[in-house]
Amino acid sequence: MTIPQNQTITSFGNTKQDLVMNWIRSEWKGILAEFVSTMLLIALGCMSCIPIEGLSLNPAMYAPLTFGFVVMFNIQIFGHISGAFMNPFVSIIAALWGKISTTVAIAYIIAEMAGAALGYGFLVAIAPVDMAGDGLCLTLPSQGYKRIPSFSC
User: Fold this and answer.
1) Of 1, 18, 100, 107, which sits 20 to 30 A from 92 (CA to CA)?
2) DSSP symbols for 4-70
3) What is the pLDDT of residues 123-147, one digit of tens each?
4) Measured distance CA(13)–CA(59) in Å, rounded
5) pTM for this structure?
6) Among residues 92, 96, 127, which one has the least CA distance to residue 109?
7) What average pLDDT does the chain have?
8) DSSP tag of 2
């Protein structure tokens, strides 16, 4: 049996390229589900933080209810495909608990970060306000706290 120079035989006669392609074929749906669910979470959730024209402040329950509904929607749609983790830390914990493999966790984390960046980028592109300049959908200390002491709260 001759082996082409660019391929090496692994156990059971599979090449490394075949093993990688089989892994991609088996995991692509979960990776795509994590990408889309995280993108929807950031885009739709942060959209609720945009001020409503004519109101000085958004009603206090808009953002929590919107994020809750988006998480519920994502779990219903993507939960059976990938678990709908939507958070790199949750993917790390799932890997530590043995629910997913380390390679799948790494792929999920990359997909979640890319989905979050695309979701926020989409929101910045369509928002009528300056999202970053106005501090919308950013984790910042409350008005009464300075940055350093707020870490101890």
Assistant:
1) 18
2) -TT--B-GGG-BHHHHHHHHHHHHHHHHHHHHHHHHHHHHHHHHTTSPPTT-SS--TTHHHHHHHHH
3) 989 888 877 777 777 776 666 666 6
4) 63
5) 0.77
6) 92
7) 83
8) -
